[in-house]
């Protein structure tokens, strides 16, 4: 899908999608509103009271059409300071934004002096300008949680983005105040917000884009320069579809994603900087110092990540990562169902009163969970409005019991991560706990217990570590240097999920294994399954399942011009390449028999090629082509990279 | 471990800066299994070792290996390399990382050390070939010092 992107970075906020050069000028006429064209051709006018547009140059910009799959060029990361990338963490519940100010990382505050801003977009009807959605970042009138839960606001975008309507997480989101509809056919779910008693449709990307526009404007006003490049943190478990959706939302908001950084790796970068500074002050010189191994546990409202990192001399190397969709939302849901076992049947019809009382219950449960971090029991008193009152005491032991499954999954993730990184608890020097849920006593004791530590690493703010790391990465990747050496550092990323192709029989053969250092390039030789087979399908998947159905389909293409030969003799080379910006390219082609030369030009395909997680594309391929175009592996000892 | 066999094909691909757009660069090198090492002139094996890649002595300690890897990563990782040479730096980083991956794992390192010894022994038998190949290879290497293949990645 081609998108309009500006060639230069000097662009007015929110005008980047506009195909017409008139848009920036129109913008300068109405300094308090900006045009925000959305992909489904409805044009939103979005307004904020603190936008100061006159400080930007409004010269007409040259526009060109660029494929949205070509947004990683290095030409955009010129090392001038005005192009310095900012760090953004869009959390399921809260978001924050940080920037390298020349000496250190600084978190920006909104007009209400908040560093952590609630992530939501409110859809309200405004008779004068039409639709005015506004996010939680910079709006002057702070919406109360009660209003956010009234059905008019969309939140939890991070849990919904890039997921199909068959996804259990999407199904679990149906108990939110806004509408999440699923038809269970593997396409984008339908979401809608209540505007004037009508459910108005939108998409998670659109909501995220509106929110990002607001963040961008807020940063531009405060930093007095246009913002284009960003480093965004994402959960470890985000697959490439989810990543592409996030990137697309950024493009819609006029932002160029320099890096999508898994949250624990951003924390690892901050840890590397702190270790470096500590050693410099101890030894007075750069020295490589001794290596420190840290386990990073990050659990927010939507996702849980675990990573291990080995750090010395400012270089943090990610040894292994594990992540899953598990967070405060799940804990909240468990508590809600515990307090009100017939929650689903009570709220199946969405009239205004039900939505309101559901919102009140959510607020009360959330508050109780927060208080249980410091108290052993809490009193819940909530008037649900429709004559029913809830009055009860919730004990910590009860809370821990209803969330046992959550803690078990956390434990499993940590064990898997340690095993993947070939580390024992004794090898770990520091345990870093970040994210809102890391404040839950049971989770702290669980992580520390598994790592056999008395106490956690100090010196990191649990809610600010990831965004600070993202801002550091933004400075490093923008080519900024610091005379004091505090930017001489690096996180060597790893792939959180394996990448490979389908072979005959539906098996998944990984070519790049998970936890491979990035950039990476690996290749394997495959062979034909039919006599005289001249074409083969390369079907690319991402995941850890042994069979392709358990993994995510990324895309497919056909290799042609395979020389005529009996089955099992022709050689097809498949090479996967992940660059430093985490872009995946697949190269494939047939070899001339018995040689190492290409039989005809190879194919180079950037993945994913699919626009949606259409699992049924794979079924359609099998239905149409059967196994006629299948490939299979060749013995390990004949694979070039296995040769010792 | 994979070693390039110095024929004209692999040398030209080493020199042609390994742009991935050219299919040449992702061809696997000619096949060579440990058992057949003696059959192929292993000149390059003995001229550029993984220790050379990391710029350390063959007897380096685990700590030295890690320190060298980190120092080189801070120079050649695409995140920190100068903007104009980020493409080449990815290849360079992968080469450094591959060397580190083998040498930092005691088992893999032992295997590698053994294969190098075998190669050196075999190299004696191939001495006439070796001198011929090393000269052309190393002159190529001097012109483009850091752009040849990360053979381990293949």
From TrEMBL, chain A:
Q: Name one Pfam family in it.
A: HSP70
* Keywords attached to this entry: ATP-binding, Nucleotide-binding
Q: Which Gene3D superfamilies match?
A: 3.30.30.30, 3.30.420.40, Actin, Chain A, domain 4 (3.90.640.10), Substrate Binding Domain Of DNAk, Chain A, domain 1 (2.60.34.10)
| Molecular functions per Gene Ontology | ATP binding; ATP-dependent protein folding chaperone
Q: Mind telling me which InterPro entries this protein's record contains?
A: ATPase_NBD, Heat_shock_70_CS, HSP70_peptide-bd_sf, Hsp_70_fam
**The family this protein is said to belong to:** Belongs to the heat shock protein 70 family.
Record-given protein name: Heat shock 70 kDa protein 8
Supply the source organism for this entry. Answer: Musa balbisiana (Banana)
Automatic annotation (TrEMBL), chain B:
Quote the cellular component terms of the Gene Ontology held in the record: endoplasmic reticulum
**Superkingdom of source:** Eukaryota
Cross-referenced InterPro entries, in alphabetical order? Diphthamide-biosynth_chaperone (IPR052276), DnaJ_domain (IPR001623), DnaJ_domain_CS (IPR018253), J_dom_sf (IPR036869)
CDD domains from the UniProt entry = DnaJ
Q: Pfam families attached here?
A: DnaJ
Q: Where is the J domain?
A: 49-116
Q: What is this protein called?
A: J domain-containing protein
Q: Which organism is it from?
A: Musa balbisiana
């Amino acid at each position: 899908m081609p998108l309009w992107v500006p060639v230069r970075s000097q662009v007015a906020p929110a005008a980047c999608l506009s195909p017409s050069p008139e848009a920036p000028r129109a913008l300068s006429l109405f300094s308090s509103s900006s045009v925000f064209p959305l992909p489904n051709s409805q044009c939103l006018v979005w307004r904020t009271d603190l936008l100061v547009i006159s400080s930007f140059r409004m010269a007409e910009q040259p526009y060109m059409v660029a494929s949205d799959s070509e947004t990683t060029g290095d030409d955009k990361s010129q090392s001038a300071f005005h192009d310095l990338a900012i760090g953004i963490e869009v959390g399921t519940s809260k978001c924050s934004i940080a920037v390298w100010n020349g000496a250190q990382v600084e978190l920006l505050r909104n007009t209400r002096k908040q560093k952590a801003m609630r992530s939501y977009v409110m859809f309200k009807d405004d008779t004068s300008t039409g639709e005015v959605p506004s996010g939680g970042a910079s709006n002057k009138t702070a919406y109360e949680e009660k209003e956010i839960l009234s059905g008019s606001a969309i939140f939890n975008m991070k849990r919904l983005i890039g997921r199909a309507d068959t996804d259990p997480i999407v199904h679990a989101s149906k108990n939110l105040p806004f509408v999440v509809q699923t038809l269970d056919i593997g396409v984008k779910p339908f979401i809608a917000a209540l505007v004037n008693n009508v459910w108005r449709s939108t998409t998670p990307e659109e909501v995220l884009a509106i929110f990002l526009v607001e963040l961008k404007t807020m940063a531009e006003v405060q930093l007095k320069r246009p913002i284009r490049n960003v480093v965004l943190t994402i959960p470890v478990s985000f697959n490439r579809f989810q990543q592409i959706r996030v990137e697309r939302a950024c493009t819609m908001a006029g932002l160029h994603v320099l890096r999508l950084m898994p949250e624990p790796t951003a924390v690892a970068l901050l840890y590397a900087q702190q270790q470096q500074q500590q050693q410099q002050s101890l030894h007075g010189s750069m020295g490589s110092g001794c290596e420190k191994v840290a386990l990073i546990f990050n659990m927010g409202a939507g996702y849980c990540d675990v990573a291990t990192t080995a750090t010395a001399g400012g270089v943090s190397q990610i040894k292994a990562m594990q992540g899953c969709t598990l967070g405060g939302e799940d804990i909240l849901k468990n508590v809600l169902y515990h307090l009100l076992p017939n929650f689903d049947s009570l709220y199946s019809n969405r009239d205004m009163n039900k939505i309101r009382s559901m919102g009140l219950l959510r607020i009360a449960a959330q508050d109780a969970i927060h208080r249980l971090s410091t108290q052993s029991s809490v009193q819940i008193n909530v008037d649900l409005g429709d004559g029913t009152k809830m009055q009860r005491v919730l004990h910590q032991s009860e809370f821990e019991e209803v969330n046992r499954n959550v803690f078990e999954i956390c434990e499993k993730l940590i064990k898997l991560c340690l095993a993947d990184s070939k580390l024992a608890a004794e090898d770990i020097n520091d345990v870093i706990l970040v994210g809102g849920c890391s404040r839950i006593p049971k989770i702290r004791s669980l992580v520390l217990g598994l790592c056999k530590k008395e106490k956690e690493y100090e010196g990191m703010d649990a809610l600010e570590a990831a965004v600070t790391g993202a801002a550091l990465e933004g400075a490093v990747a923008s080519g900024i240097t610091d005379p004091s050496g505090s930017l001489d550092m690096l996180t060597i990323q790893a792939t959180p999920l394996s990448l490979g192709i389908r072979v005959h029989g539906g098996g998944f053969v990984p070519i790049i294994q998970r936890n491979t250092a990035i950039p990476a390039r690996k290749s394997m030789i495959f062979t034909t399954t039919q006599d005289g087979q001249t074409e083969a399908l390369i079907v690319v998947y991402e995941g850890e399942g042994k069979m392709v159905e358990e993994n995510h389909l990324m895309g497919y293409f056909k290799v042609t011009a395979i020389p005529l030969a009996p089955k099992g003799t022709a050689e097809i080379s498949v090479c996967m390449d992940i660059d430093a910006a985490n872009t995946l390219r697949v190269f494939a082609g047939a070899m001339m028999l018995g040689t190492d030369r290409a039989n005809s030009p190879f194919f180079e395909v950037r993945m994913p090629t699919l626009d949606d997680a259409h699992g049924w594309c794979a079924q359609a391929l099998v239905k149409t082509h059967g196994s006629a175009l299948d490939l299979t592996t060749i013995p390990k000892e004949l694979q070039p990279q296995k040769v010792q | 471990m994979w070693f390039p066999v110095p024929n004209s094909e692999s040398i030209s691909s080493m020199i042609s800066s390994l742009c991935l757009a050219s299919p040449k660069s992702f061809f696997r090198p000619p096949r060579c299994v440990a058992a057949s090492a003696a059959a192929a002139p292993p000149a390059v094996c003995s001229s550029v070792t993984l220790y050379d890649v990391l710029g350390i002595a063959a007897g380096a300690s685990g700590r030295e290996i890690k320190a060298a890897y980190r120092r080189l990563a801070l120079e050649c990782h695409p995140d920190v390399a100068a903007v104009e040479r980020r493409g080449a730096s990815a290849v360079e980083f992968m080469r450094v990382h591959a060397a580190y991956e083998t040498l930092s794992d005691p088992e893999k390192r032992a295997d590698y050390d053994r294969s190098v010894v075998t190669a050196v022994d075999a190299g004696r038998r191939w001495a006439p070939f070796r001198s011929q190949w090393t000269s052309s290879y190393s002159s190529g290497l001097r012109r483009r010092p850091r752009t040849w293949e990360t053979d381990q990645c293949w």
